[in-house]
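sorry for the late reply, my laptop died twice this morning and i had to redo everyting from scratch. anyway the thing you sent over, i finally got around to it. pasting the sequence first so we're on the same page, its 243 residues, then the predicted structure underneath. double check i copied it right bc i was rushing
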Amino acid sequence: MNRLPTLLLLLMISTPATAQVIYTDWLWHEWEVTPFGGASFLGHSRNFVTPTIGVPGGIRTVGMRYGSGYMVGVNCRQNLGDYWAADLQYTFANQPLEFTNISPDLPTLGLSHTISNFSYNGTYHFQSYSHRFLPYVRAGGGASLFFLEGGSERRAEAALGVRLRDSWTPTFSYGGGFQYLFDDLVGVTFDARDTISSVPSYGLPKSAAVVNGVFFPGIARDGVLHNFQVNFGLTIRWDDWVR
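ok and here's the structure:
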């Protein structure tokens, strides 16, 4: 994640080096769609000091760790002149989830887990569409669905005695990349971005509890998650939705 600002700076520096490679205005088209694939990373493990209410009480450190995984998606962009654009984007990422120390009798709990993100973004190109090489920066907002597969939900319920559920969180994302246009209709796109969200609850309260000798898990989540994604895609461009 710390490398993303460096990447954006390199894209800005690369713009003068390619400024002399000028083509013609026919490279501009209003609409484009980019199916893409890549990798998704959610950083290091997070540990949360969680109080336990009841007898015996106390505190426990509950860990959450997301594995890295593949990511696929699609971006639909409307170009708003030579430099600006707006886009809708959907991504689906496989991100296995592991809880540690969530229960006294359960040191670890691994679950099949995916993240779907929906976002609306604004984009600024450092060069006009009279160039084939188009570095850009983008930022936007949206929402992410942290989804537990059905088998994982049942396994977690059997192990913990409570049913975990899928969680939605609002998101903010920023990043950048470049397009290279082979001609006026087809090109390739490289994109990297960091999507920032709150920590999902999965239906767990912020404290654990002991009721009549039965332990009920909780997690005192705080802070944010940084989901760093990189991808390559094939870009197809056109002018009108209906001719």
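Residues 4-18 form the longest helix (15 residues).
thats about all i looked at so far, will dig more tmrw
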